[in-house]
Amino acid sequence: MDLIALSRLGGRHLVTLHLLLDTRSVTRSAERLCTTPSTVSKTLNQLRELLGDQLLYRQGNQLLLTPFAERLGPTLRRLLGELNGLTSQEGFAPANWQGELNLAMRESSMIWPMGAVLGQLMQEVPGLMPVVRNKDEQGLAALAAGKLDFVILPHDQSQPGVNQPGLVWETLREDELVCLMRADHPALTRPWDLDAYLSWRHIAIRDQELADPFFEQSLAQRQVRRRLGATLPDFGSAAALLRQSDLILTAVKGWATRACTQGLVSRPVPFDYGAVTHSLVWYGPLGEDPALRWFRQRILQLARELDAPQ
């Protein structure tokens, strides 16, 4: 252990570097530290000298991370969490805490179940500022990279995610699936069964970080498959297309009963599709930070207390 080198690397350096890696912006880092961009730039130059790496470099209008800085992110996040625990021996105090909570989810998850959960959290923690990113922008891989605190996503319970060591999955809410279509859809004039379901084209909601959902596998076992008419990133955009077409959307019921789905009707999924859930996912090595542990436990508690969809 090089104690001389470590003595030159202070807490101010570590916090500044963490913000620079997170924001990739000197100006935004300075705003969050309540200091000036020139002070952050000076600290960055000191870090470059101490660590022997450029850390961030400019390409056009963007600051990009060097490979060393990319690798450093998770370690730095974990170290700051442990240091925060040393300076917060009295435990997490929601009324006094100030900071951001970085989450990623689909837009539909803000309607169900996370909108109500975040609203309650912001009342209990006045200094909380949620920073919500679209899961297509940053997903499960960003958790281990230290860029996110939590990911929230709907999936079926047999649907494994990417092989990312250290990720912890816990159920927020159980749910079920329904079929949505426009109110004057021709399918409504016929009995609704598997043959009817398969006779129409469907909207697929894909997630590159998850395997095919169980209901797709269930259809394959019957040696049948859906005919896709469109692939969209989320239920909300799919609902808009449903009103203008004869497509069918298979969606989670919790969202469908709360979203702006005027002009749409639902029918049950006419085959076994397994168990559907919403999960809270985090990176285990970072999960013992006092603040993150409190937020995780409170998010799980609030989600499970929500009224079930009717």
Structural summary, described in words:
- The protein is of the alpha/beta class.
- The chain is 41% helix and 24% strand.
- It has twelve helices and twelve strands.
- It has helices spanning 3-8, 11-23, 26-33, 37-51, 67-86, 107-124, 140-144, 194-199, 214-221, 235-242, 253-256, 290-305; strands at residues 56-59, 62-65, 98-105, 127-134, 150-156, 167-175, 177-182, 201-205, 227-232, 248-252, 264-268, 276-283.
- The strands form three sheets. It has a five-stranded mixed β-sheet with strand order 4-3-5-12-6.
- Helix 2 (11-23) crosses helix 4 (37-51).
- It is elongated and about 75 Å long.
- The N and C termini lie far apart (60 Å).
- The model has no long low-confidence stretch (mean pLDDT 86).
Topology (SSEs and partners):
Layout: H1 3-8, H2 11-23, H3 26-33, H4 37-51, E1 56-59, E2 62-65, H5 67-86, E3 98-105, H6 107-124, E4 127-134, H7 140-144, E5 150-156, E6 167-175, E7 177-182, H8 194-199, E8 201-205, H9 214-221, E9 227-232, H10 235-242, E10 248-252, H11 253-256, E11 264-268, E12 276-283, H12 290-305
